[in-house]
Each structure stands twice: as C-alpha cells, then as structure tokens.
Design goal:
The protein is built from three helices and three strands, in the order βββααα. The chain is an alpha+beta fold. β2 and β3 form a beta hairpin. The longest helix has 15 residues. InterPro entries: PQQD, PqqD_bac, PqqD_sf.
Length: about 70
C-alpha cells in the first residue's frame, strides 16, 4: 500500500512486515501501478511528465526489482 508521510514528506510502501521509504519519484511510479496500466503505459505517461528523465530504462528496471522483492505483483 502506498502512503505519504507528511512529517517526513516521503512516500512509503507499506508492506505486511516492513515499510520501504521511496526516494525521488519512486512513489509516483508505484502510484501508477493500479492494475489497469501496462509497463509501457506507465513509461509513456512518465515520459510525458518528465521528458528529460531516462524513464524508458529506469522504470522497467525499478518495477522488475519491486516484483523480484515480492512488493509488486
């Protein structure tokens, strides 16, 4: 579950046995993982929002890492 800690101004990924502090725009990426978007769709949306960022490579790698950790299905 994605939450925002207003005290620390950080996005948090709240899991059953841990809390992961998300840095930078990681919370934005996780927030787009709502089950209706594909990875290419998420990449496309983020490329529009952040045209100078290397989202085409960074975002799929980040999502793969989340899946490997079991934090995203």
């Amino acid at each position: 579950m994605l939450r925002h800690d207003t005290v620390r101004d950080r996005d948090l990924l709240v899991l059953p046995e841990r809390v992961v502090v998300l840095e930078g725009h990681a919370g934005t990426v996780v927030g787009l993982c709502d089950g209706s978007r594909t990875v290419p769709g998420i990449v496309g949306e983020l490329a529009e929002r952040f045209p100078d960022a290397p989202v085409a490579t960074v975002v799929p790698d980040f999502l793969d890492r989340l899946r490997q950790e079991g934090w995203l299905k």
